[in-house]
Design brief:
CATH topology of the largest domain: Nuclear Transport Factor 2, Chain: A
CATH architecture of the largest domain: Roll
Number of domains: 2
Radius of gyration: 24 Å
Order of helices and strands: HHHHHEEEEHHHEEEEE
Number of strands: 9
Shape: elongated
Oligomer: single chain
Strand content: 15-25%
Distance between the termini: 60 Å
Amino acid sequence: MALAVALATAVGAENAAAQKTLSPSETAVSFYKALKAKRYAEGFRLSVYNGAIEGLSPDELKELEPDFARTFSGIPDRIDAVSEHIDGDSATVSLKFEGTDENQPVMLVRVGGRWLVGDMDALRLVQSQGREFFFNARMSVNESESAQMIYRIIGAETIYARQKQGVYASLDQLIQLGGIPKDWEGGTANGYRATVTIASDRKSFFVTAEPVQYGKTGKLSFYADINNLRAEDLKGKPAGPDSPVYTIK
């Protein structure tokens, strides 16, 4: 038993040492290959996002996997390091991704003797947010995409009203006409649930959208009419015409 423990300890130390001595190029290629293979925890541990992945429970990691899969689905099978430049504790690796003509620069920083994909600004952001980082990033993306879709709904309603003597259409009608993507069938997409409310005379409308899971898929609630898009954090409750005007960042 003592021998087995000693061997396991030696192997673990050897693996840790090997990981610490990865070059910037080896780190960058391994990072992308792990994400391509959906070994997300392994990949993020080679990056400045290590602190965010380490704090996640297995259930939380599983919940985020669809977002990771969508984000990294375009990584090709072949990735080659073309060049590497080290300047103190910073490095830039030029990678050639299969199917692309131009090489892609990848920034790395050295932290605790290890090269990590990313830069110091991202590292400090992760350090400040910890395990909440990926959920915060997801909410920010969902809120932005939902706001853009609401703008698209307003545009589609404007076009429809010009063609139909000033009356407005339901969300289902806009989808059927191709003005809104089918992703929004049922009113739910991007972690948000949207509703288009048409007046009884069909001469006016407003749009509301709330996060499906407050604090996980989004925090802002949206309200929009033909004049403005408004939003505020209402803990998942609907926004209204008195909410602050929202501008997409």
